[in-house]
Amino acid sequence: MSIKWEAVTNPIRQDIRLAYRDPVLFHHEGIYHIFYTVVEQEQEQDRYRLYMEHSRSTDLAHWEPAVRVADSPLNFSSPGNIVRAGGKWLLCVQSYPMEPGEIYGNASSRLWLMESADLTNWSEPWMIQESGCQAVWSSSPRQIDPYLVEYQSRYWCFYKAAGQLGALVSDNLRDWQEASPDRPVLSSTETPDGSTVENPCIVRDGEEFVLFFSPCRQGRGIGTARSRNLLDWSEVRYLDFPELAWAPGGPTAAMVLDRREACGKWLMAFHGDTEGPHGAALGLAWSGDLEHWHIS
Fold it and tell me: What is the pLDDT of residues 207-236, one digit of tens each?
């Protein structure tokens, strides 16, 4: 089905009682799937509860009622992306345990995988690496914000630790090791303003990889960088992204999907920060060149 861009109205998901964050956009057999984090504040227990939801659309404008995915005390959240492996779909996620009164996940936050045969029914998550981050550049084992890339017959899992981006690598999706143990793949020393970074997303553009990342700063924003080997990144900068009247805190957590063959566009799902520690709503944008993005 062709997309009527004028019918795609942002935000595509918003609720004053809930926060919608960290979207994954995926297309399969004529259906767009979106997975994302939901954040609820539990007033009685003075804590936040996180879980994931999944919705579907054929036109990006009309979405089916959401279905809850991976609801657990471990706060499974921040889905990264979906890849095909071993005849199954794989979705990478994080666990994000939070103590009462805290607004961020603690040091036991880890990276996980889930599998599905139909993109609807998902297995229980299994942990990628129980020990967490073992790179010498991180002082904590805490790992969040996974993103999977298949390259040179290996699987790479990018993640955030200590405000920087790292990467694990595996031949079988079960045994993982640090791909860059001595330095971050992308660090705050490389961003235009020294901001720490999170929410990696990587796409192929010709012979290069393009990394989208989120700077951790006021007004947020969307950063990009380019590489030919996944480890050495250059041209690190921030996009000139449209302003969002519905998200005064700015755009962040961009996830990009290549739909050029079908509709001549790159698609981006993202969330815009609203009010409160986790306040956010989901939006969509599109581009013909990965540089100039349009929203409705």
Answer: 999 999 999 999 999 999 999 999 999 999
Helix (H) or strand (E) holding 63: none
Q: SS3 letters for 90-104?
A: EEEEECCCCCCCCCC
The sign of the dihedral angle between the CA atoms of 285, 289, 292, 296 is negative
Instruction: Count CB atoms within 10 A of the CB of residue 293.
Output: 21
Residues 6+ apart with CB under 8 A from 26: 32, 33, 34, 35, 81, 82, 119, 257
- Which pTM does this prediction carry? 0.97
Cα–Cα distance, 203 to 158 (Å, whole number): 13
Give per-residue pLDDT as tens, 71-93.
999 999 999 999 999 999 999 99
User: b/e map of 244-263 (b: 16 or more CB within 10 Å)?
Assistant: beebebbbbbbbbbebeeee
User: Nearest Cα to 76, choosing from 55, 101, 54, 57?
Assistant: 54
